[in-house]
Sequence to fold (552 residues):
Amino acid sequence: MRGRQVLMESLIGHGVEYVFGNPGTTESPILDALLDYPQLHYMVALHEGVALGAASYHALASGKTAVVNLHVAPGLGNALGMLYNALKSRAPLVVTAGQQDTRLRLRGPVLGHDLVAMAAPLTKWSVQVERADEFAPILHRALKIATDPPAGPVFVALPIDVLEQETDVEPFAPGRLYRASQPDPAGIRAAAELLLGSRQPVIVAGDDAAGAAAELAALAERLGAAVWCEGIRTRQVLPSAHPNFRLGLPFDTVAIRTALEGADVVLLVGGPFFEEVWYAPGSPLPPGARAIHVESSPERLAHNLPVSVGVVSDPRAALAALLAVVEREGGAALRDAAARRNDALRALKAQDAEAQRARAAKRWDRTPIAVPRAMAEIEAALPADAIVVDEAITASIDLARTVQFERPCDYVGARGGGIGQALPGALGVKLAHPDRPVLAVSGDGSAMYSIQALWTAAHHDLAVVFLILNNREYRILKHNMDTYRQRFGAKPERGYPHMDLVSPDLGFVDLARGMGVEGARVTAPGELRPALEKALAGRRPFLLDVAVEGRA
Fold:
Protein backbone atom coordinates (compact mmCIF):
# COMPACT_ATOMS: atom_id res chain seq x y z
CA MET A 1 0.00 0.00 0.00
CA ARG A 2 1.00 3.62 -0.42
CA GLY A 3 0.96 6.01 2.49
CA ARG A 4 -2.09 7.84 1.17
CA GLN A 5 -4.02 4.55 1.07
CA VAL A 6 -3.14 3.79 4.69
CA LEU A 7 -4.35 7.30 5.56
CA MET A 8 -7.70 6.84 3.84
CA GLU A 9 -8.35 3.35 5.12
CA SER A 10 -7.38 4.31 8.67
CA LEU A 11 -9.92 7.12 8.65
CA ILE A 12 -12.65 4.92 7.19
CA GLY A 13 -11.89 2.16 9.68
CA HIS A 14 -12.38 4.60 12.55
CA GLY A 15 -15.76 5.75 11.27
CA VAL A 16 -14.72 9.08 9.74
CA GLU A 17 -17.26 10.22 7.15
CA TYR A 18 -16.19 13.77 6.33
CA VAL A 19 -12.87 15.45 5.65
CA PHE A 20 -13.07 19.24 5.93
CA GLY A 21 -10.47 21.11 3.98
CA ASN A 22 -9.09 23.71 1.65
CA PRO A 23 -6.85 21.97 -0.90
CA GLY A 24 -3.33 22.84 -1.98
CA THR A 25 -0.50 21.34 -3.99
CA THR A 26 0.99 19.19 -1.23
CA GLU A 27 -2.48 17.69 -0.68
CA SER A 28 -2.63 16.42 -4.27
CA PRO A 29 -2.16 12.74 -3.21
CA ILE A 30 -5.07 13.09 -0.76
CA LEU A 31 -7.43 14.72 -3.26
CA ASP A 32 -6.47 12.17 -5.89
CA ALA A 33 -6.99 9.26 -3.47
CA LEU A 34 -10.48 10.50 -2.57
CA LEU A 35 -11.61 9.43 -6.03
CA ASP A 36 -11.02 5.83 -4.93
CA TYR A 37 -12.79 6.24 -1.56
CA PRO A 38 -16.29 7.61 -2.21
CA GLN A 39 -17.34 6.83 1.36
CA LEU A 40 -15.17 9.78 2.47
CA HIS A 41 -16.87 13.08 1.67
CA TYR A 42 -14.64 16.14 1.22
CA MET A 43 -16.26 19.35 2.45
CA VAL A 44 -14.67 22.24 0.60
CA ALA A 45 -14.06 25.55 2.38
CA LEU A 46 -12.63 28.75 0.92
CA HIS A 47 -10.53 29.46 4.01
CA GLU A 48 -8.71 27.13 6.36
CA GLY A 49 -10.32 28.71 9.42
CA VAL A 50 -13.75 27.86 8.04
CA ALA A 51 -12.69 24.25 7.44
CA LEU A 52 -11.33 23.84 10.95
CA GLY A 53 -14.30 25.58 12.58
CA ALA A 54 -16.76 23.35 10.73
CA ALA A 55 -14.78 20.23 11.65
CA SER A 56 -14.59 21.22 15.31
CA TYR A 57 -18.32 21.79 15.63
CA HIS A 58 -19.05 18.59 13.73
CA ALA A 59 -17.00 16.69 16.30
CA LEU A 60 -18.86 18.34 19.18
CA ALA A 61 -22.29 17.81 17.61
CA SER A 62 -21.74 14.24 16.44
CA GLY A 63 -19.58 12.94 19.28
CA LYS A 64 -17.19 11.51 16.68
CA THR A 65 -13.63 12.45 15.85
CA ALA A 66 -13.55 14.90 12.94
CA VAL A 67 -10.75 15.33 10.41
CA VAL A 68 -9.58 18.52 8.72
CA ASN A 69 -6.93 18.85 6.04
CA LEU A 70 -5.04 22.15 5.67
CA HIS A 71 -2.34 23.38 3.33
CA VAL A 72 1.28 23.85 4.53
CA ALA A 73 2.44 26.69 6.78
CA PRO A 74 0.20 29.60 5.69
CA GLY A 75 -2.87 27.35 5.67
CA LEU A 76 -2.14 26.02 9.14
CA GLY A 77 -1.47 29.59 10.23
CA ASN A 78 -4.85 30.69 8.90
CA ALA A 79 -6.52 28.02 11.04
CA LEU A 80 -4.69 28.58 14.33
CA GLY A 81 -7.41 30.83 15.77
CA MET A 82 -10.03 28.16 15.22
CA LEU A 83 -7.60 25.53 16.51
CA TYR A 84 -7.40 27.48 19.77
CA ASN A 85 -11.19 27.43 20.04
CA ALA A 86 -11.23 23.68 19.36
CA LEU A 87 -8.71 23.12 22.15
CA LYS A 88 -10.77 25.15 24.62
CA SER A 89 -13.98 23.34 23.64
CA ARG A 90 -12.34 19.91 23.98
CA ALA A 91 -13.27 18.93 20.44
CA PRO A 92 -11.93 15.52 19.35
CA LEU A 93 -10.19 16.57 16.16
CA VAL A 94 -7.41 15.28 13.91
CA VAL A 95 -5.85 18.20 12.05
CA THR A 96 -3.63 17.32 9.11
CA ALA A 97 -1.64 19.52 6.77
CA GLY A 98 0.27 18.73 3.63
CA GLN A 99 4.01 19.24 3.99
CA GLN A 100 6.66 19.81 1.37
CA ASP A 101 8.76 16.91 0.02
CA THR A 102 11.16 15.86 2.79
CA ARG A 103 14.03 15.88 0.26
CA LEU A 104 13.60 19.67 0.10
CA ARG A 105 13.87 20.11 3.86
CA LEU A 106 17.30 21.76 3.79
CA ARG A 107 16.61 23.92 0.73
CA GLY A 108 14.01 26.24 2.26
CA PRO A 109 11.17 25.36 -0.14
CA VAL A 110 8.25 27.64 -0.98
CA LEU A 111 5.68 27.59 1.87
CA GLY A 112 7.96 25.40 3.96
CA HIS A 113 8.11 25.65 7.75
CA ASP A 114 8.13 23.53 10.91
CA LEU A 115 4.45 22.61 11.02
CA VAL A 116 4.82 20.44 14.10
CA ALA A 117 6.20 23.37 16.08
CA MET A 118 3.46 25.67 14.80
CA ALA A 119 0.67 23.37 15.95
CA ALA A 120 2.20 22.05 19.17
CA PRO A 121 1.04 24.80 21.59
CA LEU A 122 -2.61 24.31 20.60
CA THR A 123 -2.81 20.52 20.39
CA LYS A 124 -2.55 17.49 22.63
CA TRP A 125 0.02 15.92 20.31
CA SER A 126 1.82 17.22 17.23
CA VAL A 127 3.84 14.97 14.91
CA GLN A 128 5.05 14.54 11.33
CA VAL A 129 4.94 11.23 9.46
CA GLU A 130 8.56 10.68 8.40
CA ARG A 131 8.12 7.43 6.45
CA ALA A 132 5.19 5.41 5.15
CA ASP A 133 5.70 2.67 7.74
CA GLU A 134 4.68 5.23 10.39
CA PHE A 135 1.27 6.03 8.90
CA ALA A 136 -0.67 3.23 10.56
CA PRO A 137 0.72 3.63 14.11
CA ILE A 138 0.66 7.45 14.02
CA LEU A 139 -2.93 7.62 12.80
CA HIS A 140 -3.99 5.02 15.35
CA ARG A 141 -2.34 7.03 18.12
CA ALA A 142 -3.68 10.36 16.84
CA LEU A 143 -7.27 9.11 16.74
CA LYS A 144 -6.87 7.69 20.25
CA ILE A 145 -5.28 10.78 21.80
CA ALA A 146 -7.92 13.06 20.27
CA THR A 147 -10.62 11.21 22.20
CA ASP A 148 -8.73 10.49 25.43
CA PRO A 149 -10.15 12.60 28.30
CA PRO A 150 -9.96 15.51 28.09
CA ALA A 151 -10.67 15.30 24.36
CA GLY A 152 -8.96 17.77 22.06
CA PRO A 153 -7.18 18.33 18.76
CA VAL A 154 -4.04 16.57 17.56
CA PHE A 155 -1.92 17.51 14.54
CA VAL A 156 -0.26 15.32 11.89
CA ALA A 157 1.95 16.74 9.13
CA LEU A 158 1.84 14.77 5.85
CA PRO A 159 4.84 15.25 3.52
CA ILE A 160 3.88 14.75 -0.12
CA ASP A 161 6.63 12.23 -0.84
CA VAL A 162 5.79 10.14 2.24
CA LEU A 163 2.16 9.96 1.10
CA GLU A 164 3.49 8.27 -2.06
CA GLN A 165 5.91 5.87 -0.37
CA GLU A 166 5.03 2.20 -0.20
CA THR A 167 4.59 0.22 3.02
CA ASP A 168 3.44 -3.20 4.13
CA VAL A 169 2.26 -1.85 7.52
CA GLU A 170 -1.50 -1.97 7.18
CA PRO A 171 -4.00 0.23 9.04
CA PHE A 172 -4.64 -0.77 12.64
CA ALA A 173 -8.05 -2.28 13.29
CA PRO A 174 -10.06 0.08 15.49
CA GLY A 175 -11.08 -1.24 18.87
CA ARG A 176 -13.81 -0.18 21.25
CA LEU A 177 -12.21 1.83 24.04
CA TYR A 178 -14.19 2.24 27.25
CA ARG A 179 -12.86 5.26 29.08
CA ALA A 180 -15.65 6.30 31.45
CA SER A 181 -13.65 6.10 34.67
CA GLN A 182 -15.52 5.22 37.85
CA PRO A 183 -15.01 7.45 40.89
CA ASP A 184 -13.07 6.40 43.96
CA PRO A 185 -15.68 5.35 46.57
CA ALA A 186 -13.74 7.18 49.27
CA GLY A 187 -13.87 10.36 47.24
CA ILE A 188 -17.61 10.00 46.70
CA ARG A 189 -18.11 9.40 50.41
CA ALA A 190 -16.11 12.53 51.31
CA ALA A 191 -17.93 14.66 48.74
CA ALA A 192 -21.34 13.35 49.80
CA GLU A 193 -20.62 14.15 53.44
CA LEU A 194 -19.91 17.76 52.53
CA LEU A 195 -23.10 18.01 50.47
CA LEU A 196 -25.25 16.31 53.11
CA GLY A 197 -23.98 18.76 55.74
CA SER A 198 -24.37 21.84 53.57
CA ARG A 199 -26.74 24.69 54.43
CA GLN A 200 -26.61 26.18 50.91
CA PRO A 201 -25.11 23.89 48.24
CA VAL A 202 -24.47 25.21 44.72
CA ILE A 203 -23.45 23.32 41.58
CA VAL A 204 -21.36 24.79 38.75
CA ALA A 205 -21.52 22.58 35.67
CA GLY A 206 -19.03 22.68 32.82
CA ASP A 207 -19.54 21.40 29.30
CA ASP A 208 -18.48 17.87 30.21
CA ALA A 209 -21.43 17.64 32.60
CA ALA A 210 -23.90 18.10 29.72
CA GLY A 211 -23.67 14.37 29.07
CA ALA A 212 -25.08 13.77 32.53
CA ALA A 213 -28.04 16.17 32.42
CA ALA A 214 -30.48 13.71 34.04
CA GLU A 215 -28.14 12.91 36.94
CA LEU A 216 -27.27 16.59 37.34
CA ALA A 217 -30.94 17.60 37.52
CA ALA A 218 -31.80 14.83 39.97
CA LEU A 219 -28.93 15.71 42.31
CA ALA A 220 -29.72 19.43 42.15
CA GLU A 221 -33.36 18.76 43.02
CA ARG A 222 -32.47 16.35 45.83
CA LEU A 223 -30.12 18.92 47.38
CA GLY A 224 -32.14 22.02 46.53
CA ALA A 225 -29.04 23.40 44.80
CA ALA A 226 -28.84 26.15 42.23
CA VAL A 227 -27.02 25.12 39.04
CA TRP A 228 -24.81 27.61 37.20
CA CYS A 229 -22.93 27.02 33.97
CA GLU A 230 -19.73 28.60 32.69
CA GLY A 231 -19.84 32.09 31.20
CA ILE A 232 -18.89 30.80 27.76
CA ARG A 233 -20.21 27.30 27.20
CA THR A 234 -20.56 24.82 24.38
CA ARG A 235 -23.52 22.89 25.73
CA GLN A 236 -26.82 23.42 27.56
CA VAL A 237 -26.13 21.64 30.84
CA LEU A 238 -29.76 21.68 32.03
CA PRO A 239 -33.05 22.53 30.29
CA SER A 240 -33.50 26.31 30.18
CA ALA A 241 -36.80 26.09 32.06
CA HIS A 242 -35.51 23.92 34.90
CA PRO A 243 -36.22 25.81 38.14
CA ASN A 244 -32.73 25.19 39.51
CA PHE A 245 -30.89 26.47 36.41
CA ARG A 246 -29.36 29.93 36.91
CA LEU A 247 -27.63 30.62 33.52
CA GLY A 248 -23.96 31.53 33.06
CA LEU A 249 -21.51 32.96 35.56
CA PRO A 250 -19.76 36.31 34.94
CA PHE A 251 -16.11 36.89 34.07
CA ASP A 252 -14.26 38.19 37.14
CA THR A 253 -13.82 36.75 40.62
CA VAL A 254 -15.80 39.44 42.45
CA ALA A 255 -18.81 39.03 40.18
CA ILE A 256 -18.60 35.22 40.38
CA ARG A 257 -18.34 35.41 44.16
CA THR A 258 -21.41 37.67 44.25
CA ALA A 259 -23.40 35.25 42.09
CA LEU A 260 -22.49 32.36 44.41
CA GLU A 261 -23.07 34.39 47.57
CA GLY A 262 -24.34 32.35 50.50
CA ALA A 263 -23.03 29.04 49.24
CA ASP A 264 -21.10 27.00 51.79
CA VAL A 265 -20.37 24.01 49.50
CA VAL A 266 -19.76 24.41 45.74
CA LEU A 267 -19.73 21.30 43.55
CA LEU A 268 -17.70 21.94 40.37
CA VAL A 269 -18.30 19.35 37.63
CA GLY A 270 -16.57 18.92 34.27
CA GLY A 271 -14.84 22.20 33.51
CA PRO A 272 -11.71 24.33 34.04
CA PHE A 273 -13.30 26.79 36.49
CA PHE A 274 -13.06 29.70 36.13
CA GLU A 275 -12.44 31.65 32.93
CA GLU A 276 -12.01 35.37 33.56
CA VAL A 277 -11.78 38.45 31.37
CA TRP A 278 -10.93 41.07 34.01
CA TYR A 279 -8.61 40.72 37.00
CA ALA A 280 -10.16 41.03 40.41
CA PRO A 281 -8.52 40.03 43.69
CA GLY A 282 -9.53 37.13 45.87
CA SER A 283 -11.21 33.81 45.34
CA PRO A 284 -14.26 33.32 43.10
CA LEU A 285 -15.81 31.26 45.91
CA PRO A 286 -17.69 32.89 48.80
CA PRO A 287 -15.79 33.21 52.11
CA GLY A 288 -15.66 29.90 53.91
CA ALA A 289 -17.14 27.92 51.05
CA ARG A 290 -15.67 24.47 50.48
CA ALA A 291 -15.19 23.16 46.95
CA ILE A 292 -15.70 19.70 45.46
CA HIS A 293 -14.25 19.18 41.99
CA VAL A 294 -15.17 16.32 39.64
CA GLU A 295 -13.01 16.14 36.51
CA SER A 296 -12.36 13.44 33.93
CA SER A 297 -8.58 13.94 33.82
CA PRO A 298 -6.05 14.23 36.66
CA GLU A 299 -4.19 17.17 35.11
CA ARG A 300 -7.35 19.31 35.19
CA LEU A 301 -8.32 18.36 38.73
CA ALA A 302 -7.92 21.23 41.23
CA HIS A 303 -5.83 23.02 38.61
CA ASN A 304 -6.92 26.58 39.39
CA LEU A 305 -8.54 26.37 42.83
CA PRO A 306 -7.85 24.66 46.14
CA VAL A 307 -10.56 22.07 46.72
CA SER A 308 -11.67 20.14 49.77
CA VAL A 309 -12.45 17.01 47.75
CA GLY A 310 -11.30 16.21 44.24
CA VAL A 311 -12.54 13.20 42.27
CA VAL A 312 -11.24 11.96 38.92
CA SER A 313 -14.23 10.41 37.20
CA ASP A 314 -16.54 10.46 34.26
CA PRO A 315 -19.02 13.20 35.33
CA ARG A 316 -22.05 10.99 34.81
CA ALA A 317 -20.63 8.21 36.96
CA ALA A 318 -19.66 10.62 39.74
CA LEU A 319 -23.03 12.40 39.77
CA ALA A 320 -24.89 9.07 39.80
CA ALA A 321 -22.75 7.85 42.70
CA LEU A 322 -23.27 11.09 44.66
CA LEU A 323 -27.01 10.93 44.02
CA ALA A 324 -27.17 7.37 45.32
CA VAL A 325 -25.49 8.32 48.60
CA VAL A 326 -27.57 11.46 49.05
CA GLU A 327 -30.81 9.57 48.41
CA ARG A 328 -29.81 6.77 50.76
CA GLU A 329 -28.55 8.90 53.62
CA GLY A 330 -30.41 12.19 53.24
CA GLY A 331 -33.14 12.13 55.86
CA ALA A 332 -36.27 14.16 56.47
CA ALA A 333 -34.28 17.24 57.45
CA LEU A 334 -32.52 17.29 54.06
CA ARG A 335 -35.80 16.71 52.22
CA ASP A 336 -37.45 19.61 54.02
CA ALA A 337 -34.48 21.95 53.51
CA ALA A 338 -34.16 20.98 49.85
CA ALA A 339 -37.87 21.58 49.29
CA ARG A 340 -37.57 25.08 50.76
CA ARG A 341 -34.54 25.85 48.60
CA ASN A 342 -36.26 24.46 45.50
CA ASP A 343 -39.33 26.61 46.17
CA ALA A 344 -37.12 29.68 46.46
CA LEU A 345 -35.31 28.83 43.22
CA ARG A 346 -38.63 28.25 41.44
CA ALA A 347 -39.86 31.66 42.56
CA LEU A 348 -36.61 33.28 41.47
CA LYS A 349 -36.90 31.60 38.07
CA ALA A 350 -40.42 32.96 37.61
CA GLN A 351 -39.25 36.40 38.70
CA ASP A 352 -36.40 36.36 36.18
CA ALA A 353 -38.73 35.26 33.37
CA GLU A 354 -41.16 38.06 34.17
CA ALA A 355 -38.31 40.58 34.29
CA GLN A 356 -37.16 39.47 30.82
CA ARG A 357 -40.69 39.76 29.45
CA ALA A 358 -40.95 43.26 30.90
CA ARG A 359 -37.57 44.16 29.44
CA ALA A 360 -38.78 43.10 26.01
CA ALA A 361 -42.18 44.80 26.37
CA LYS A 362 -40.60 48.11 27.32
CA ARG A 363 -38.79 48.28 23.96
CA TRP A 364 -41.18 46.14 21.92
CA ASP A 365 -41.93 48.60 19.14
CA ARG A 366 -38.50 50.17 18.91
CA THR A 367 -36.85 50.47 15.50
CA PRO A 368 -34.22 49.17 14.84
CA ILE A 369 -35.40 46.04 16.61
CA ALA A 370 -34.58 45.83 20.30
CA VAL A 371 -32.49 42.77 21.11
CA PRO A 372 -34.92 41.40 23.76
CA ARG A 373 -37.73 41.48 21.20
CA ALA A 374 -35.51 39.90 18.54
CA MET A 375 -34.87 36.98 20.89
CA ALA A 376 -38.57 36.66 21.70
CA GLU A 377 -39.37 36.50 17.97
CA ILE A 378 -36.65 33.88 17.44
CA GLU A 379 -38.07 31.76 20.27
CA ALA A 380 -41.57 32.01 18.78
CA ALA A 381 -40.37 31.02 15.29
CA LEU A 382 -38.11 28.09 16.17
CA PRO A 383 -39.38 24.55 15.60
CA ALA A 384 -39.20 22.26 18.62
CA ASP A 385 -36.34 20.24 17.14
CA ALA A 386 -34.20 23.21 16.06
CA ILE A 387 -30.53 23.59 16.99
CA VAL A 388 -29.17 27.07 17.70
CA VAL A 389 -25.49 27.81 17.07
CA ASP A 390 -24.85 30.88 19.19
CA GLU A 391 -22.33 33.64 18.62
CA ALA A 392 -24.59 36.55 19.44
CA ILE A 393 -21.90 38.02 21.73
CA THR A 394 -23.58 40.92 23.63
CA ALA A 395 -27.02 39.57 22.68
CA SER A 396 -26.21 36.12 24.09
CA ILE A 397 -27.52 37.08 27.54
CA ASP A 398 -30.94 37.94 26.10
CA LEU A 399 -30.80 34.76 24.02
CA ALA A 400 -30.10 32.62 27.09
CA ARG A 401 -32.90 34.32 29.06
CA THR A 402 -35.45 33.94 26.27
CA VAL A 403 -34.82 30.97 23.96
CA GLN A 404 -35.71 27.66 25.57
CA PHE A 405 -33.40 24.67 25.13
CA GLU A 406 -34.54 21.27 26.36
CA ARG A 407 -31.57 19.03 25.52
CA PRO A 408 -27.81 19.58 25.61
CA CYS A 409 -27.59 19.19 21.82
CA ASP A 410 -30.19 21.93 21.20
CA TYR A 411 -27.56 24.61 21.85
CA VAL A 412 -23.97 24.95 20.62
CA GLY A 413 -21.93 27.89 21.88
CA ALA A 414 -18.65 29.47 20.83
CA ARG A 415 -16.22 28.18 23.43
CA GLY A 416 -12.77 29.75 23.45
CA GLY A 417 -14.01 33.25 22.75
CA GLY A 418 -12.32 33.68 19.38
CA ILE A 419 -14.92 35.18 17.08
CA GLY A 420 -16.11 33.94 13.70
CA GLN A 421 -17.17 30.49 14.91
CA ALA A 422 -20.93 30.39 14.33
CA LEU A 423 -21.08 30.45 10.53
CA PRO A 424 -18.61 27.60 9.89
CA GLY A 425 -19.69 25.83 13.05
CA ALA A 426 -23.26 25.63 11.84
CA LEU A 427 -22.06 23.72 8.77
CA GLY A 428 -20.52 21.02 10.95
CA VAL A 429 -23.61 20.87 13.16
CA LYS A 430 -25.89 20.48 10.14
CA LEU A 431 -23.79 17.60 8.80
CA ALA A 432 -24.07 15.92 12.21
CA HIS A 433 -27.85 16.45 12.35
CA PRO A 434 -29.07 16.64 8.74
CA ASP A 435 -32.73 16.16 9.67
CA ARG A 436 -32.90 18.98 12.22
CA PRO A 437 -33.29 22.71 11.47
CA VAL A 438 -30.10 24.64 12.27
CA LEU A 439 -30.04 28.37 13.03
CA ALA A 440 -26.74 30.21 13.36
CA VAL A 441 -27.07 33.49 15.28
CA SER A 442 -24.05 35.74 14.80
CA GLY A 443 -23.09 39.33 15.37
CA ASP A 444 -22.18 41.31 12.29
CA GLY A 445 -18.54 41.73 13.28
CA SER A 446 -18.17 38.02 14.04
CA ALA A 447 -19.77 37.03 10.74
CA MET A 448 -17.15 38.90 8.74
CA TYR A 449 -14.38 36.73 10.17
CA SER A 450 -15.72 33.69 8.33
CA ILE A 451 -18.22 34.95 5.77
CA GLN A 452 -16.77 32.49 3.23
CA ALA A 453 -18.71 29.78 5.08
CA LEU A 454 -21.77 30.86 3.08
CA TRP A 455 -20.18 29.53 -0.12
CA THR A 456 -19.59 26.14 1.48
CA ALA A 457 -23.23 26.04 2.61
CA ALA A 458 -24.37 26.71 -0.96
CA HIS A 459 -21.81 24.40 -2.55
CA HIS A 460 -22.81 21.43 -0.39
CA ASP A 461 -26.51 22.43 -0.10
CA LEU A 462 -26.50 22.64 3.69
CA ALA A 463 -29.82 24.04 4.86
CA VAL A 464 -28.56 26.41 7.55
CA VAL A 465 -30.30 29.70 8.30
CA PHE A 466 -27.72 32.38 9.11
CA LEU A 467 -29.23 35.18 11.20
CA ILE A 468 -26.95 38.20 11.45
CA LEU A 469 -27.63 40.64 14.28
CA ASN A 470 -26.52 43.82 12.54
CA ASN A 471 -25.92 46.74 14.89
CA ARG A 472 -23.16 48.23 12.70
CA GLU A 473 -20.59 48.12 15.50
CA TYR A 474 -18.30 46.01 17.65
CA ARG A 475 -20.67 46.39 20.56
CA ILE A 476 -18.75 44.11 22.90
CA LEU A 477 -15.65 46.27 22.51
CA LYS A 478 -17.60 49.36 23.49
CA HIS A 479 -18.84 47.67 26.64
CA ASN A 480 -15.33 46.50 27.42
CA MET A 481 -13.93 49.97 26.75
CA ASP A 482 -16.29 51.32 29.41
CA THR A 483 -15.14 48.62 31.82
CA TYR A 484 -11.48 49.33 31.08
CA ARG A 485 -11.93 53.06 31.67
CA GLN A 486 -13.69 52.42 34.96
CA ARG A 487 -11.19 49.85 36.23
CA PHE A 488 -8.04 51.67 35.22
CA GLY A 489 -9.13 55.23 35.92
CA ALA A 490 -9.10 56.37 32.29
CA LYS A 491 -11.23 59.31 31.23
CA PRO A 492 -14.90 58.30 30.90
CA GLU A 493 -17.47 59.59 28.43
CA ARG A 494 -15.12 59.54 25.47
CA GLY A 495 -15.66 58.13 22.00
CA TYR A 496 -15.09 54.59 20.78
CA PRO A 497 -12.38 54.70 18.13
CA HIS A 498 -12.45 52.15 15.31
CA MET A 499 -15.40 50.22 16.72
CA ASP A 500 -18.13 51.16 14.23
CA LEU A 501 -18.81 49.09 11.11
CA VAL A 502 -19.92 51.96 8.89
CA SER A 503 -18.69 53.99 5.93
CA PRO A 504 -19.51 51.75 4.18
CA ASP A 505 -22.21 49.67 5.82
CA LEU A 506 -21.86 45.93 5.39
CA GLY A 507 -24.24 44.52 2.78
CA PHE A 508 -24.81 40.99 4.04
CA VAL A 509 -27.59 40.15 1.59
CA ASP A 510 -25.36 41.13 -1.34
CA LEU A 511 -22.44 39.19 0.14
CA ALA A 512 -24.64 36.11 0.55
CA ARG A 513 -26.02 36.25 -2.97
CA GLY A 514 -22.51 36.60 -4.32
CA MET A 515 -21.76 33.22 -2.76
CA GLY A 516 -24.95 31.49 -3.87
CA VAL A 517 -27.06 31.99 -0.75
CA GLU A 518 -30.38 33.81 -0.91
CA GLY A 519 -31.04 36.43 1.73
CA ALA A 520 -33.33 39.13 3.03
CA ARG A 521 -32.93 42.20 5.20
CA VAL A 522 -35.25 42.72 8.16
CA THR A 523 -35.67 46.25 9.51
CA ALA A 524 -39.15 46.38 11.09
CA PRO A 525 -39.89 44.48 14.33
CA GLY A 526 -42.96 42.74 12.93
CA GLU A 527 -41.02 41.35 9.97
CA LEU A 528 -38.63 39.14 11.90
CA ARG A 529 -40.77 36.21 12.95
CA PRO A 530 -42.45 35.58 9.55
CA ALA A 531 -39.12 36.03 7.76
CA LEU A 532 -37.43 33.52 10.05
CA GLU A 533 -40.28 31.02 9.78
CA LYS A 534 -40.13 31.26 5.98
CA ALA A 535 -36.35 30.83 5.96
CA LEU A 536 -36.50 27.76 8.19
CA ALA A 537 -39.28 26.22 6.12
CA GLY A 538 -37.30 26.71 2.88
CA ARG A 539 -34.88 23.86 3.70
CA ARG A 540 -32.01 25.57 1.92
CA PRO A 541 -29.21 27.88 3.05
CA PHE A 542 -30.58 31.35 3.72
CA LEU A 543 -29.29 34.55 5.34
CA LEU A 544 -31.32 37.07 7.33
CA ASP A 545 -29.67 40.45 7.89
CA VAL A 546 -31.52 41.78 10.94
CA ALA A 547 -31.09 45.44 11.85
CA VAL A 548 -30.96 45.62 15.65
CA GLU A 549 -30.47 48.46 18.10
CA GLY A 550 -26.99 49.72 18.78
CA ARG A 551 -25.25 50.09 22.08
CA ALA A 552 -27.67 50.51 24.99
